[in-house]
Design a protein that fits this description.
Elements lengths: L2 H71 L6 H21 L10 H4 L4 H12 L12 H38 L13 H27 L5 H12 L15 H50 L5 H15 L1 H4 L1 H7 L1 H25 L17
Helix pairs in contact: 1-2, 1-4, 1-5, 4-8, 5-8, 6-7, 6-8, 8-9, 8-12, 9-12, 11-12
GO biological process, one term: stabilization of membrane potential
Membrane topology: Multi-pass membrane protein
Main location: membrane
Amino acid sequence: MDLKTRLKAWCLDFRIKQALAHTGLLVTLMAYTVLGGLIFRHLEHPAEVDRLSSLQSSLLHRRRHFVERIINNTLVLENPLEYVFYELSEYEKLLEDAFAEGFQSSHEQEISELEKWSFLKSVFFSSTVLTTIGYGNTVPVTVEGRAFCIVFALIGIPLTLTVIADMGRLFASSLSTLMDHMPKCCRCANVIKRPSCYAFGAVAFLFVYLAAGAGFFVIWEEDWTFFEGFYFCFITMTTIGFGDLVPKKPKYMLLCTVYILIGLALTSTIIELVRRQYLQSWKQLQAMSGPLADTLRKMADNAPGIDVSAFQNDLKKVLTVVTMPKRLTSQIDRYGKRQKQIQWEDAVESVIRDISNGTQEKQISPPVVKIVIYESSV
């Protein structure tokens, strides 16, 4: 087997190992989420059934009691209106608790229709814990469930962040590869503005992803509008998680979990791209301040009578030099940071020499000798 064939085989083996590593992380997170959902259901479901059954019995009993007391006592009491208001307020307090648990007063419901700790809902809850979204519509109420939630989050949140970061790197590398193989007609012509174009394109792709999710949620949740679906997707992908809008159809919750996980990876990648763009702009401003300050100081020392038009031309030179690091990206990758620093210093010194020579030739009046007298209190 020649060297070329062995190199190809090694590259193929390396790519397979990389794919297995990425897939292994994702499968581990999915298994951990399902396991957490099963444990949450085991800890919380019995207490939930007991609570709902007791509340349903109390609601039916209180309703019957309210009707009987009104019929039997309103005709014999001196002040029946006050008595009715009292009985009604007691019944309304119980109704508030029943509505909070999902009961409807129009008809009797089965306990299974009101369960918040079914298998799919429990898995969805565990995913909101791991992603730190935390809608708040479903929470553990038992001591065991809350204690397990702490341990589950301490182990699972770092794992989730690792998976999201790994997926983010995959998306970022895929985006870079896509940009490199993009036809020239579709690329940004201005090399300096190209990173900004890429960041803008990434943000636009995120909004397309959010819009696609909103369209699916409009189909899944019949009472949602497109804007409500888009609002839910944005609040979820940014991990704000108000909890005012939450999917209610259990059969779609696994798909919703996968959508959220991919969306979080996309969001983190795009936020990182935008952050890098801001950081690059800030570094550019910082780099600009140094050469400008040196130039202005030398100009003030060497040429009191300076021509404004010449100053404007020299300022354009300085601004051109400031943008040079972007144009020298290939050389930076080749020779390292030291080469970048040397080129930067040479360029700045060249501009300063040009400015000093030009201003000395255009000098109108001789330099003024300044005598500074220092006075001390000793």
